[in-house]
Amino acid sequence: MAGRRVVVFPTSVELGPVLAHLVTSRAEQAVNSRGRFTLGLSGGSLVTMLAKELLAVPGLDCSKWVVGFCDERVVPFDNPDSTYGLYKSHLFSKINIPDDAILAIDFSLGVSECAEDYSGKLRKAFPDDDIPVFDLLLLGMGPDGHTCSLFPEHPLLEESQKIVAPISDSPKPPPERVTMTFPVVNAARCATFVSTGGSKAPVLKEVLEGREGPPFPAARVHPTNGELLWLIDEPAAAALTMKVERLGSGAKL
Ligand SMILES: O=C(O)[C@H](O)[C@@H](O)[C@H](O)[C@H](O)COP(=O)(O)O
Questions:
Q1: Keyword set for this entry (predicted)?
Q2: What CATH number matches the domain at 12-186+200-220+233-240, 3.50.30.30, 3.10.28.10, 3.40.50.10860, 3.40.50.1360?
Q3: Among 46, 133, 51, 53, which Cα is nearest to 92's?
Q4: What is the value of pTM for the model shown?
């Protein structure tokens, strides 16, 4: 692990531009060294924050981006629960990313087949990797400590063979989802959590500072050969006693 950075911003207003800079600078580095930038997206409040901030970047060029989903709800794209659907309307329709560079699920399949199909899409997009190595995964964390669709105490936390797994009993609706597993999450070059708001404070303390008993799913994210960044705001950081970095909107990570 290249190390963990916990960076606290006054509010999400200052965090947003730094997130956009992180994405575009990692994209530039990746395109320069490997010819493309592979990005994994999560849902929740990240969708609108990321879309707003990326669309404000002058001359944003996504022509060499390949985008996947850290998890996805198995619902039609026009269902408001579809993470792809939200990104399509907020972001993909407004940037120059080729359609075939977006690795989306086939929601018409049953949840198990859908996971197999999405796994095949990842394998095809990463033909040289035993486990797909994304340049950047953007992750969220629920107030229960889940990330992707990896929920506390769920057997999927121990999945070590599959790169993508189906889940049909998600405690958070909708119940049917597909999710990247920890082997993929922890193979990333950089995993970045974005977590804001006071509702995250209690769980964030346990995730970042440790707890008795089994670690929360979000605490199990620690890329083997990559970086781990936590971008949070003061309300989310309220219960932390650890040393953190405090930065503002002009920061570059
Ligand atoms: O699939 C889901 O149910 C959500 O996408 C979820 O996993 C989300 O990423 C976290 O709950 C953090 O969401 P917020 O950043 O909006 O709190």
A1: Hydrolase
A2: 3.40.50.1360
A3: 51
A4: 0.98
